[in-house]
Design goal:
five-stranded antiparallel beta sheet, 17 strands, 13 helices, alpha+beta
C-alpha cells in the first residue's frame, strides 16, 4: 500500500515539475520573440542609399566637377536628411525613375551631361531597390520566426497552466477503479486521475492482464465510465490492447455533445478534380474540427494548393496550437514558400464538445451559417486569403451551439450560384426553409439547390455540414 502511494505521489510531482519546465520554456521563447521584435527597420530607400547612388553617378560621369552642387546640398545638415534627397528617393519609389523635371534647376542649367548622369543615377537607385527587395524579404522571414516564437510560447504557457491547475483526484477514485478493473482481470500497477476546468477528467494508468488473455482499451474505458459516472474513450495516440505485459494507457472523458458530419462536393464544369479541399474530424480530446479551403482557380493546381493548406492546419491543430495560432502560422509558412501568387482561402471552425461553443476563423473565406433554434445566423469575417499578407490577425467569431444546431460551411461557388444580388440573404432564406434532417441529407439538399440555377457548375462547389447533438 505504501509503495502504491509512493508511485502515485511520484507521478503527481512529475506532473508539477513538467508544468514548471514548460513555463520556463515559454518564457525563454517569449524573450527570444521580444529580441526579434526590437530589431525594427524602416521600409523604403534610406538616406544612405540615396547618397551612395549620387556619389556613384558623380564618380562615373562628373569626375571633379561639382558645378550643380547636388551632392553638397544632399550632405548639408550632417546626419539630418535633406528635403531634396527625401523627395528624390520617394519620387523614384513612386515612378520607378528620376526624370529631368525632378532635378534641381541649377543642374538643368549647368550640367553638360544631364542624360548620362540621369541614366547612371537611375541604374544606381534601381540596384538599391533590388537590394531593398531582398532585405524586405529577409525582414518578412524574421517576422515569421518571431510570430512562431510568440505562438509557441503561448501554447507552452497555456499547457503548463492547465497542468498546474489540474486537480489530482486519484484518491477519490482509486479504490473503486482498481476494484472494478480487477474484476475484469486487469491489474493496475499505477494510477493518476486529473480533473481539469469544466470538470473534464482524464485517467492515466499502467496496467496488464492477469489471466494471460487480451482486452481492448475500449472495454476498459466502459468499466471506467461506469465507476466515474461519465463517458470515457481511450486516447487515440495510445495502445489499443491490454496484454499481460504492463503498458501505459490514457482515458479521456467525452464531452456533453457529439457531432456528426455531412459533405457534398462538385468540381467545376470541365474539370475532373475539385480545387476545394475539406476535412472534418475530432481533433484534441473533446474538440471537433471542420475546415474548408478553396484554392485559386480550379483543377489539379488549385486542389494541390488547398490540400497543402489543409495539411498544415491539421498538423498544427493536432499538435495543440489554438485556431488563431494555426491560421497565423499557416499564413507565414505560405508566405515563406512563395505561395502569395496562388493564395488559398481557409475557413476553420472548432467545436468544444464539453461546452458546445464553436469558434470560427476565416482567411479570405465566404460566410458560414448556423442553423439553430432561433433561425439562421451568418458568421462572416472579411480577410485576405492565406499567404498574401504578413502579419495577419484572424478574427475569431464565437457562438454557443445547442442540441440539434447545424453548422454549414460552403465555398464561394455555392454562394455565387444563389439568385439575386444579396447572395447571403438568399442562401439564409433557403436554409431557414429546410426541414429537420441529418448533416449528410442537409449537405445534399443544399448542393441540389445550388445546382438547380446553372445546371452545370461554373466554379468548384463544396458544402460541409456539422450537426451538434447532446449525449
Amino acid at each position: 500500500m505504501l509503495k502504491r502511494r509512493a508511485v502515485h505521489k511520484d507521478m503527481a510531482e512529475a506532473n508539477v515539475y513538467a508544468a514548471r519546465r514548460l513555463k520556463d520554456m515559454a518564457q525563454s521563447l517569449g524573450g527570444l520573440a521580444k529580441t526579434f521584435g526590437r530589431c525594427r527597420e524602416e521600409p523604403g530607400l534610406s538616406r544612405e542609399d540615396g547618397i551612395a547612388a549620387l556619389e556613384a553617378a558623380s564618380a562615373m560621369v562628373c569626375g571633379a566637377c561639382e558645378s550643380c552642387g547636388i551632392q553638397r546640398e544632399c550632405r548639408r545638415g550632417g546626419d539630418d536628411e535633406n528635403y531634396y534627397l527625401y523627395y528624390l528617393l520617394r519620387t523614384f519609389e513612386k515612378k520607378g525613375c528620376v526624370e529631368y523635371e525632378d532635378m534641381p534647376r541649377r543642374f538643368l542649367e549647368v550640367c553638360r551631361r544631364k542624360s548620362d548622369y540621369l541614366g547612371q543615377l537611375n541604374r544606381n537607385l534601381g540596384r538599391a531597390t533590388m537590394n531593398l527587395t531582398w532585405k524586405n524579404r529577409f525582414l518578412e522571414s524574421r517576422a515569421a520566426v518571431m510570430t512562431q516564437f510568440e505562438e509557441l510560447a503561448g501554447i507552452l504557457e497555456e499547457f503548463s497552466g492547465q497542468m498546474e491547475q489540474a486537480l489530482d483526484v486519484t484518491m477519490t477514485w482509486e479504490g473503486e477503479l482498481k476494484t472494478a478493473l480487477r474484476k475484469r482481470q486487469i491489474d493496475v500497477e499505477s494510477l493518476l486521475v486529473l480533473q481539469y476546468g469544466q470538470g473534464r477528467r482524464e485517467v492515466f494508468m499502467t496496467a496488464r492482464m492477469t489471466n494471460g488473455r487480451c482486452m481492448t482499451a475500449r472495454d476498459a474505458s466502459e468499466a471506467i465510465a461506469r465507476v466515474m459516472k461519465g463517458s470515457f474513450s481511450a486516447a487515440r495516440d495510445g495502445k489499443a490492447i491490454i496484454t499481460r505485459n504492463p503498458a501505459s494507457f490514457r482515458f479521456i472523458e467525452d464531452g456533453r455533445y457529439r457531432i456528426l458530419f455531412g459533405s457534398s462536393r462538385v468540381p467545376r464544369d470541365g474539370e475532373e478534380v475539385s480545387g476545394d479541399s475539406y476535412t472534418f474530424k475530432s481533433g484534441l480530446p473533446g474538440q471537433a474540427i471542420l475546415s474548408l479551403s478553396d484554392g485559386m482557380g480550379s483543377g489539379q493546381a488549385a486542389s494541390e494548393d488547398s490540400e497543402k493548406v489543409m495539411e498544415l492546419t491539421e498538423q498544427l491543430l493536432g499538435t495543440g496550437f489554438s485556431a488563431r495560432s494555426a491560421l497565423k502560422l499557416v499564413n507565414t509558412v505560405l508566405l515563406l514558400t512563395g505561395q502569395n501568387d496562388r493564395p488559398a482561402t481557409l475557413d476553420l471552425c472548432l467545436v468544444d464538445l464539453y461546452s458546445g461553443v464553436a469558434e470560427a476563423m476565416k482567411l479570405g473565406a465566404v460566410a458560414s451559417f448556423i442553423m439553430g433554434r432561433d433561425g439562421v445566423e451568418v458568421l462572416e469575417s472579411e480577410h485576405v486569403p492565406a499567404g498574401v499578407m504578413n502579419p495577419v490577425e484572424p478574427v475569431m467569431i464565437s457562438k454557443k451551439l445547442w442540441d440539434g444546431d447545424r453548422i454549414v460551411m460552403v465555398s464561394d461557388g455555392v454562394l455565387d450560384a444563389m439568385p439575386g444580388a444579396e447572395k447571403e440573404a438568399a442562401f439564409s432564406d433557403f436554409l431557414a426553409g429546410l426541414p429537420a434532417a441529418g448533416p449528410q441529407e442537409t449537405a445534399e439538399m443544399i448542393m441540389a439547390f445550388a445546382l438547380s440555377f446553372d445546371g452545370e457548375p461554373r466554379d468548384d462547389m463544396t458544402v460541409l455540414v456539422g450537426g451538434i447533438y447532446g449525449r
